[in-house]
Write a structure and sequence with these properties.
Strand order of the largest sheet: 1-2-3-5-4
Shape: elongated
Strand content: 5-15%
Number of strands: 5
Number of domains: 2
Structural class: alpha+beta
Largest sheet: 5 strands, mixed, barrel
Order of helices and strands: EEEEEHHHHH
Radius of gyration: 24 Å
Helix content: 40-55%
């Protein structure tokens, strides 16, 4: 099958290429390797060349110009390295969580004011607490990537951490307001909720690596 393939032919990855794996080319399953980047499962790829019996491929991206040698027979294209590579960042790692935390804190403070809390300088503590929680969130979401081994896809766990931390942070804010009815109580609840999630995540990692 490799001998009949031409440059620019399209295929779909079967499982992630990190950087090696398999692709489906027509009805055939063929060994393949990326040019050094992680390619997710079921990604459309195009053939660049071959390395022995293994195809060299890259993801198909919108707006990318057609290969200049498109349609030509495959040429030998040696990969410099097939060392394991890291998965790309999860969505939770890409966001600016400090700014988002600041905005959420400001919205939360506005809601607290609408609920009858007297307006004072302490209202500024809520967006500040949101920014602090956002910074802690960023550190917690980075843990799965730092702990992931070669060829490991940390993104599902990172996204799960993000959802869990976000949930406990808002629960903490709700409890803090419910108990005190003040801006400072809500701020404390925000930070404590995030810290509680961090403690749980830390304990899970400790037990996982015992």
């Amino acid at each position: 099958m490799v001998s009949l393939t031409r440059i620019g032919d399209r295929a779909f990855s079967l499982g992630p290429l990190k950087p090696t794996g398999q692709v489906r080319l027509g009805d055939a399953v063929v060994a393949a390797a990326s040019t050094g980047e992680w390619i997710d499962s079921d990604t459309e790829v195009e053939v660049l060349g071959r390395d022995g019996d293994r195809l060299t491929v890259r993801p198909v991206r919108d707006g990318e110009p057609q290969l200049t040698n498109h349609g030509q027979p495959l040429a030998e294209r040696r990969q410099e390295s097939k060392e394991p590579i890291e998965a790309p960042p999860a969505w939770a790692e890409k966001i600016n969580s400090v700014k988002i935390g600041l905005v959420i804190g400001a919205i939360t403070g506005f809601v607290v004011w609408l609920q009858g809390a007297p307006l004072s300088l302490s209202a500024l503590s809520v967006p500040l607490a949101g920014a602090i929680s956002g910074w802690v969130f960023r550190r917690l979401v980075a843990i799965p990537a730092e702990a992931a081994g070669p060829r490991s896809d940390h993104r599902p766990f990172a996204n799960a951490v993000a959802v869990g931390v976000g949930f406990t942070t808002m629960v903490g804010a709700f409890i803090g307001f419910g108990v005190s009815g003040t801006f400072l109580g809500t701020s404390l609840g925000l930070v404590v909720g995030t810290a509680a999630a961090g403690m749980v995540i830390f304990m899970l990692f400790v037990f996982a690596h015992l």
